[in-house]
Amino acid sequence: MQYSTRTFTRGDVALRVRLAGDGPLLCLLPGLGRPAEDLDPLAERLVEAGYGVALPDPRGSGGSTGPLDGLTLHDLAGDVAAVIEGLDAESIVLIGHGFGNRVARTVAADHPALVRLVVLLGCSGKVQPSPEIAEAIRLAQAVDTPDDIRAKAVQAAWYGQGRDISVWMSGWSQPVMKAYLAAAAATDIADWWTAGSAEVLIVQGLADVSAPPENGRSLKAEIGSRARLIEIENVSHALPVEAPDEVAEVILAGLASISQEA
């Protein structure tokens, strides 16, 4: 799929965005320390269904630059808001994977006029992984982990059984992970957990041990009819990478349902 590229500035931050498709715009945000290209397989399926997509490189990765010290989630949300405003988009759909859905929820809370719907892929934030899985995550992301140990850790932490783990064997940005984890720690969870007043579609892999499904269920219970919860069998935390067909199907069904109700 061919992308066009635009760059938007916000103070000393420059944000590169890849764009494709001509339909209603969906903005996709990747997981912690991951490149926006992780979401290309999902984006391709959404474009084939008639939507337009915007994939910003998070600050500090890909073609986006800016300070990484002293951030909060509100700063990262401001980056996304600047992209949406730069695209002259009206009331957009934000799709956030993993850490990206924390940023998406912060955008919805801080800039409610810009967000119509938030789609959470691998909802996280309250229910933490077990100590064993936390150690697997550490090994999977560490630069000095031998490949054989990394493969086992990647499988255990993020992928359903029988899935191709190759994409997440590499591609982690250590500076971005460090800065973004600090940003999350510096932000009260109450600022973003409920996504402001936006409609929410929660897409959760039932095999997700990194962001356990109880996170999505807890959010659904808390915000009630504002949220829809869809759980997918044998899909773990890398859901848009390991199962783009299943995830796209769920998102498209959710978008169609919401459009019919509007």
TrEMBL record:
Domain of life per record: Bacteria
Keywords assigned by UniProt, alphabetized: Hydrolase
Entry protein name: Alpha/beta hydrolase
Gene3D superfamilies with a match to the protein in the record: alpha/beta hydrolase (3.40.50.1820)
Residue span(s) of domain AB hydrolase-1: 24-242
The UniProt record lists the keyword Hydrolase: yes
Species of the source: Bosea caraganae
Lineage of origin: Bacteria, Pseudomonadati, Pseudomonadota, Alphaproteobacteria, Hyphomicrobiales
PANTHER family linked: HYDROLASE ALPHA/BETA FOLD FAMILY, PEROXISOMAL MEMBRANE PROTEIN LPX1
